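Hey team,

Filing this mostly as a record. A colleague (T.K.) asked me to run one chain through the structure pipeline before their review meeting, and I want the input and output archived in the tracker in case anyone asks later how it was produced. No errors, nothing strange. Just documentation.

Input sequence:
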Amino acid sequence: MAAKKTMDGTKAAGKVPGARTGPAEPGELAVRPGEEPWSPGEVAEARTELQSEVLRLRAEITHSEEAITGLMRDSGDGAGDDQADTGTKNITREHELALAANAREMLDQTERALERLDAGTYGLCENCGKPIGKARMQAFPRATLCVECKQRQERR
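Output structure:
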């Protein structure tokens, strides 16, 4: 979706119809039929958990990047290493790269969850628009799909 220009000439990101522009109020977040609305404490707990996860992931990414830098510096030309040493270094470097990529993906998901919490769309399935379920959101705060849509996605 292309960004639209606002009255002052700046670009505005595409907005979700009916989405809030400020932090969501407790009780406004989506819940499935029969579930209790989100209480102020539950919203605060979800936000705190997501924010602490962002800090943890950023620290993990920094640590991985430092480890990768060290491994790249030590890799040299392999002179004096036997094949096993070279292979071990390559596997370790690939492992650190995979960990860093995974942490970056989780950080993106966590930051998106915080954005959805602020927009009031937290707990809505990004595929079908139905409520994901409060219990699922509390168990997996980065969830973007309801159980039915997630199952369909995994079958593909």
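Quick notes for T.K.: Residues 1-23 have pLDDT under 50 and may be disordered. Residues 6 and 12 are 6 Å apart (CA to CA).
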